[in-house]
Design goal:
By secondary structure, this protein is α/β, with parallel strands linked by helices. It has a single domain (about 45-170), classed as Rossmann fold (3-Layer(aba) Sandwich), CATH 3.40.50. Helices cover about 25% and strands about 35% of the residues. It is built from 5 helices and 9 strands. The chain has helices at about 25, 30-40, 60-70, 125-135, 155-160, and strands at about 10, 20, 50-55, 75, 85-95, 95-105, 115-120, 140-150, 165-170. It has a 5-stranded parallel sheet with strand order 4-3-7-8-9, sandwiched between helices. The protein has a two-stranded antiparallel sheet with strand order 1-2. Strands 5-6 form a two-stranded antiparallel sheet. It is globular and about 40 Å long. Bound molecules: adenosine monophosphate (AMP). Adenosine monophosphate (AMP) binds near residues 55, 121, 125 and 150.
Amino acid sequence: MDLKQHIRPVPDFPKTGILFYDITTLLRDPQGFKMTVDLLSTPYAGLGIDVVVGIESRGFILGAAVAQRIGAGFIPIRKPGKLPAKAIKETYDLEYGKDALEIHADAVERGQRVLIVDDVLATGGTAAAATQLVRKLGGELHGLAFLIELLALKGKAKLSGENVYTVLQF
Ligand code: AMP
């Protein structure tokens, strides 16, 4: 099965000039969803990952499925103001704008082995902010896994020194 065939490129969303990689067309396909989770999880099985941190919002879907598969817990990183309890914040640059992310201040325990999961690695700003949040809480970051890497945006450069895995490259 060719996963790339199930991803829908949408031009000019959410802004003119952005080619948005829509994974809803992949997730709705039972085999496609399963294969996606298989490919994202396999490298991390048996490594003693304690928690998967998923980035809002498509990182929740993929991250939760990966966490279940590898026997880890799941922690959400959310847009500001969404988490109910005390949270810490990190601001960052996005491919299309500027934003911030938050994590519950008590979400990661010191020394826990953490895997960060998201759908797309674009400029890497979002993921870099997520690594900061995890490390601020004392998490031991094992690595980051993405379904899609947009090679032209060189997101891996922003994550130098990190263990980065991407399933599909565009
Ligand atoms: P970045 O911080 O530039 O690496 O952007 C990554 C975040 O924005 C991820 O959470 C993606 O879901 C989203 N994103 C950025 N660019 C795209 C794109 N071209 N298609 C789909 N999602 C994107």
